[in-house]
Amino acid sequence: HRTIRGAPLRHPEPLDWAKHHGLPTARRAWHDQAGTVGAVLDAEGLRLGKKLGCGTFGCAFVAAQRPTRVIKITGDPSEAAAAARVIEARAAGHRLPAVVRFHGVAAVRGTGLFIVTQERLLPLGKNAYRMVEENFEAIYVAGHGGTAEQRALARGLSARYRVDRAAVGSLLRVFDQLSAIGVEYHDCHEGNVLRTKAGMLRVIDLGISRSKPIRVPQVKP
Fold first, then answer.
1. I need a surface site. Which of 17, 89, 104, 202 has the fewest CB within 10 A?
2. pLDDT (average), residues 72-90
3. CA distance linking residue 137 with residue 141, whole number of Å
4. Do residues 47 and 95 make contact, with C-beta atoms less than 8 angstroms apart?
5. Average pLDDT, integer, range 186-210
6. Residue 172 near residue 46 (C-beta atoms within 8 A)
């Protein structure tokens, strides 16, 4: 196992080298050029399917063998720590309905990278996307406030953008719910919110969050 701490990185590493090797543009690059990571994927029986996108710290792919799941390769220990904390909390009975469901987190031995598997969600509709894009600061502030403020904002946003009020209310509560399990979430924006088939909103990226140290399995090829 490896103990990781949920503190933001000051510099976007090691995805700097990944970008120089073309990883954001071709999934095969993880196997052909990333060395240990590709070997671990093979050893774990993971096959990368369609690329969903890349950010500062990592890239996300559909799991070829299980299209309902996503494989994310990230260099952000805070995201890996938060994901592991969410898995632990759900096992203890916490529901966390507005947080993506994580299936596993592993540290790649000999690198600064982590492999995170999670559920695959759907893009936001136009109205919900605009709602988060235009109000993420207000959502963040109200999400750390009292229930009265949350209910008032949920009513207002639901009426203005024609988004289900229960879905908006659940998203607002996610900050307090994560805080209750020891994760301080700071990265809510329109690119980090997706939806379920039932229309519920879920945050998908817990990067640059703060959480207590946690041990995760360490895998090697």
1. 17
2. 91
3. 6
4. no
5. 91
6. no
